[in-house]
Design brief:
2 domains, three-stranded mixed sheet, 10 helices, 14 strands, binds uridine-5'-diphosphate-4-deoxy-4-fluoro-alpha-D-galactose
């Protein structure tokens, strides 16, 4: 089977390409390298191109049979989406529609979409199941929810079947140490904490200590990137087996506070992590934890790297890899 991975040079996409290749799938990557890295594509065929270029999509889908598409090519920063909504709606919504239209035109009917916990907005129930109310509070979350709704309409009208996977906090790195997270700029907690542990940053700032949580800092559900990728493969196989379109929340169901993440990182790395305490970051809910029972029941998904210490250990190995452009001082 041939899978087109859009955004396959990015953090999660590159891990997906490696998994698909290892499992014997024929893989084509489409990526414009605006955020991805060519050297992160360790399998499949690479096509440099943007989702907005319909001729690139047409040529790709015309010249070879594609059995399914996975779409990771998104802008992902909530704060930036508030400052630059046009950028987010253009890429994450309109260009996604170009992709869907090209799929419909070329009769490719299986689609796995990278969605997010941000579609829910401020939690009214925790843990959050799939039917939690959808009240996104920023353009990033609104755009993802728009696409989810668009996909329901495309299913009814055009027979395009899709699975939407709503990630909670993607983290960790390839257990083999070959791939990892390389965002520029980096905004995510775990890589920032580990870069501080490695001495590449002066420290880490905790955004808010007055939340209504046991230690006053925000609680998140960190899910290993390799476990996310397994869920994508199961989702595509569900569609290939004739399953209906669906949406799944993906997390471990365990919440960890910012302080707990820093403590675990200290224990894993054995390094000092200088911490400063700062103001809340606008738009951060106090607690985001997934109820992922539906993915377990319907996809047969079972996270294999559920321990926070394992997630952090894999990310640490990546951050201190010998080939890192900025290796840890003693790493
Ligand atoms: N945090 C800090 N200091 C930092 C960075 C983060 O205290 O320097 C805190 C944040 O306030 C938050 C937690 O660490 O409480 C996790 O923050 P991340 O930025 O790592 O992750 P988010 O929960 O903000 O974001 C994740 C995804 C986004 C997605 C969002 C949806 O990474 O792509 O969930 O809610 F949009």
């Amino acid at each position: 089977m041939h899978v087109l991975v859009v955004g396959g040079a990015g953090y999660i996409g590159s891990h997906m390409v490696k998994l698909l290749s290892q499992r014997g799938f024929n893989v084509t990557v489409l990526d414009n390298l605006s955020a991805g890295h060519r050297d992160a594509v360790v399998g499949g065929r690479f096509v440099l191109g943007d989702l907005g270029e319909r001729d690139v999509l047409d040529e790709l889908l015309e010249t070879q049979r594609v059995d399914g598409v996975m779409h990771f090519a998104s802008h992902i920063q909530v704060g930036e989406s508030v400052r630059e909504p046009a950028k987010y709606y253009l890429n994450n919504v309109f260009k996604t529609q170009y992709l869907l239209d090209a799929m419909v035109a070329h009769r490719v009917r299986s689609f796995v979409f990278s969605s997010t916990a941000a579609i829910f907005g401020e939690p009214v129930r925790v843990p959050m199941a799939e039917d939690h109310p959808k009240n996104p509070i920023n353009p990033y979350g609104r755009g993802k929810w728009m696409v989810e709704q668009m996909l329901q309409d495309y299913d009814v009208a055009y027979g395009l079947k899709s699975v939407c996977l709503r990630y909670f906090n993607a983290a960790g790195a390839d257990p083999d140490g070959e791939l990892g997270e390389r965002h520029e700029p980096e905004t995510h907690l775990i890589p920032l904490v580990l870069q501080a542990a490695a001495g590449r940053r002066p420290g880490v700032t905790v955004f808010g200590t007055d939340y209504d949580t046991p230690d006053g800092t925000c609680i998140r559900d960190y899910i290993h990137v390799a476990d996310l990728c397994e869920a994508h493969l199961l989702a595509l196989q569900r569609l290939w087996a004739g399953g209906d379109g669906a949406a799944y929340n993906l997390g471990n169901g365990n919440g960890f506070s910012v302080r707990e993440v820093i403590e675990t990182a200290h224990a894993v790395t054995g390094r000092a992590i200088p911490v400063q305490y700062g103001a809340r970051r606008p738009g951060d809910p106090a607690r985001l934890v997934a109820d992922a029972r539906r993915a377990r029941a319907e996809l047969g998904w079972a996270p294999r790297h559920a321990e926070l210490a394992t997630i952090i250990a894999h990310a640490w190995r990546w951050e201190t890899r010998p080939s890192s452009p900025h290796p840890g001082e003693n790493g």
